C-alpha cells in the first residue's frame, strides 16, 4: 500500500530561531505559552526545544545557567534594599535618642 502525502509541509526552523525562542521563554516574566503564541508555534514544540537546550543538544547549556543569575541578583538587590530600610530606621531612632539626651542635659536640675 503506497504512503499518502497530505500536502502539509513541516516548517523547518533555524538553530538561531530556536535558541532565541528558548532564551526568550526562560525570561522570568514570560511563559512558554505566551512565547509560543508570539512566535506562532505550538507550545509543545517550544517545550521540546527547551528540553533539547537543557540536554545540550544546541550546544549552549552554559547560557541557561547565566539566565538564573539575574534572579539571584534581584534577590540580593531586594535584600540590600530591605537592609537599607532597616538601617535608616535605626539611624532615625539613634537621632531621636541623641535629641532626647541633649534636651535632658539642658533641663535645669531641681537640686
TrEMBL record:
Coiled-coil residues: 70-97
Which Gene3D superfamilies does the entry link to?
Homeodomain-like
- Keyword Magnesium in the entry? The reply is no
Entries under InterPro entries matching the protein: Homeodomain-like_sf, Transposase_8
Please provide the record's keywords in A-Z order: Coiled coil
Pfam families attached to this UniProt entry? HTH_Tnp_1 (PF01527)
Q: Which domain of life is it from?
A: Bacteria
Q: Into which family does the record put it?
A: Belongs to the transposase 8 family.
In Swiss-Prot or TrEMBL terms, this protein is called Transposase
Amino acid at each position: 500500500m503506497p504512503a499518502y502525502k497530505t500536502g502539509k509541509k513541516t516548517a523547518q526552523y533555524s538553530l538561531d530561531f530556536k535558541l532565541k525562542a528558548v532564551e526568550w521563554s526562560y525570561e522570568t516574566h514570560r511563559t512558554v505559552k505566551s512565547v509560543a503564541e508570539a512566535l506562532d508555534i505550538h507550545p509543545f514544540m517550544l517545550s521540546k526545544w527547551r528540553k533539547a537546550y537543557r540536554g545540550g543538544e544546541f550546544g549552549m547549556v552554559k547560557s541557561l545557567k547565566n539566565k538564573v543569575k539575574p534572579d539571584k541578583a534581584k534577590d540580593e538587590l531586594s535584600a540590600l534594599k530591605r537592609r537599607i530600610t532597616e538601617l535608616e530606621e535605626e539611624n532615625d531612632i539613634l537621632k531621636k535618642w541623641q535629641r532626647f539626651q541633649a534636651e535632658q542635659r539642658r533641663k535645669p536640675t531641681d537640686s
